[in-house]
């Protein structure tokens, strides 16, 4: 989902290519999700914007808008997959275009468009389009004076933007919010009524820099930890916005560069300094963190499930193994004494030869197998203890 930095990038391009121009023509599809769920429609949008001059463009967290020379004004949210495209410009970040096929790069209008605008000024025309494949984005019309748009819904219900609203987003503001709530700190950061613009990757990045456990309750941190968190929010958000969300320019030691490998082959599995990464899942929300750095110093939310981020760059897995093993488990498995034990068990499990004494031989064999199986069971229990100890550490 586009977050604070990606929205800042889009608004940057809108200010360069759209502000000051008049919307000569508009088209919009009738989409019951993108338009309908916020009380408007494609035809209503077209009617409202056609012929209007764009005076300015603004942003607050994950929302952005165009102020026209006459209300209503379009206020937009990208949801999971929305974006603004400008013909002849690459408005998206590098990774966006890496996922596109060569023949899709110059197609206009782009696939999955919801509205298109043709803007003119001094004989020049600019074409823009709002796209959204998954249709979680929203385009609404807000009928209000342009200069007061942030005093109206949906913007008024959202918290301060850490970059835009430096006078509102203060250290004392953050501490007051943390002390008055009893929720995991990651959940507080993602709450748009508290802080606008922080999503999953920014939240994980901020907590990594702060060395805070993502599921620890927000009111159980010290004043020093709250101060560190405040500074980290300002640093991460400001830096990402200054770079217009271009991850190619993010510092190499940022968590962002390593956090995307869950469930995929070739995942990094660790930071550049060798620190291992893991994922926490609680209530359907997933966080990436560094367990040895972000240790809990208070209570955490119940029901947290931890999943290590496996890496192709670590010790190679055995081809015969069905489950990943830790380095320690593999080391123990390869020791001569363990191999000897396994050989003894395997030999003793071979079927007994038939004998005229029959029951006597079978009875003796059963006794030997029962005795030999005990060391193997103990070995399995010890290995299990080692594995569980790793997850708890």
UniProtKB/TrEMBL annotation:
GO MF terms here are: damaged DNA binding; DNA-(apurinic or apyrimidinic site) endonuclease activity; lyase activity; oxidized purine nucleobase lesion DNA N-glycosylase activity; zinc ion binding
Query: Which CDD domains does the protein's record reference?
Result: PF_Nei_N
GO cellular component annotations of the record: nucleus
Formamidopyrimidine-DNA glycosylase catalytic domain residues are 2-137
Q: Give the residue ranges for region: Disordered.
A: 299-393
Q: Gene3D superfamilies from the xrefs?
A: 1.10.8.50, MutM-like, N-terminal (3.20.190.10)
Ranges of Basic and acidic residues composition bias in the record: 304-317, 330-350
- Please provide the record's keywords in A-Z order: DNA damage, DNA repair, DNA-binding, Glycosidase, Hydrolase, Lyase, Multifunctional enzyme
Its recorded reaction(s) are: Hydrolysis of DNA containing ring-opened 7-methylguanine residues, releasing 2,6-diamino-4-hydroxy-5-(N-methyl)formamidopyrimidine
What the entry lists under InterPro entries is as follows:
FPG_cat (IPR012319), FPG_N (IPR035937), H2TH_FPG (IPR015886), Ribosomal_uS13-like_H2TH (IPR010979)
Q: Could you mention a single GO BP entry for this protein?
A: base-excision repair
Q: Belongs to which family? A: Belongs to the FPG family.
Record-given protein name = Formamidopyrimidine-DNA glycosylase catalytic domain-containing protein
């Amino acid at each position: 989902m586009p977050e604070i930095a990606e929205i800042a990038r889009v608004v940057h391009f809108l200010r360069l290519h759209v502000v000051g121009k008049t919307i000569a023509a508009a088209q919009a599809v009738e989409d019951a999700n993108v338009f309908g769920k916020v009380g408007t429609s494609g035809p209503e949008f077209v009617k409202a914007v056609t012929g209007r001059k764009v005076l300015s463009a603004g942003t607050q967290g994950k929302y952005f808008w165009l102020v026209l020379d006459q209300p209503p004004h379009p206020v937009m949210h990208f949801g999971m997959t929305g974006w603004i495209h400008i013909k002849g410009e690459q408005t998206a970040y590098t990774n966006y275009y890496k996922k596109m096929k060569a023949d899709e790069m110059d197609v206009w209008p782009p696939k999955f468009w919801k509205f298109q605008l043709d803007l003119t000024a001094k004989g020049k025309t600019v074409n823009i389009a709002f796209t959204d494949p998954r249709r979680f984005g929203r385009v609404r019309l807000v009928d209000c004076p342009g200069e007061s748009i942030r005093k109206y819904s949906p913007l008024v219900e959202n918290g301060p933007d850490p970059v835009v609203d430096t006078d509102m987003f203060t250290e004392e503001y953050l501490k007051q919010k943390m002390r008055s709530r009893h929720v995991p700190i990651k959940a507080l950061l993602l709450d748009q009524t508290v802080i606008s613009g922080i999503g999953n990757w920014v939240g994980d990045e901020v907590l990594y820099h702060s060395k805070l456990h993502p599921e620890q309750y927000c009111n159980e941190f010290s004043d020093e930890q709250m101060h560190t968190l405040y500074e980290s929010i300002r640093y991460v958000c400001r830096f990402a916005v200054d770079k217009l969300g271009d991850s190619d320019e993010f510092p190499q030691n940022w968590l962002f560069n390593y956090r995307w490998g869950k469930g995929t082959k070739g995942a990094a599995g660790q930071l550049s300094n060798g620190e291992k990464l893991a994922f926490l899942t609680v209530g359907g929300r997933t966080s990436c963190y560094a367990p040895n750095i972000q240790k809990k110093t208070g209570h955490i939310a119940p029901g947290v499930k931890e999943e290590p981020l496996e890496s192709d760059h670590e010790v190679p897995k055995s081809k015969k193994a069905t489950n990943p093993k830790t380095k320690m488990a593999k080391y123990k498995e390869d020791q001569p004494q363990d191999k000897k034990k396994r050989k003894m068990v395997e030999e003793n499990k071979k079927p007994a030869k038939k004998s005229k004494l029959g029951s006597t031989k079978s009875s003796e064999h059963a006794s030997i197998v029962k005795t030999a199986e005990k060391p193997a069971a103990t070995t399995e229990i010890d290995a299990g203890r080692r594995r569980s100890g790793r997850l708890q550490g």
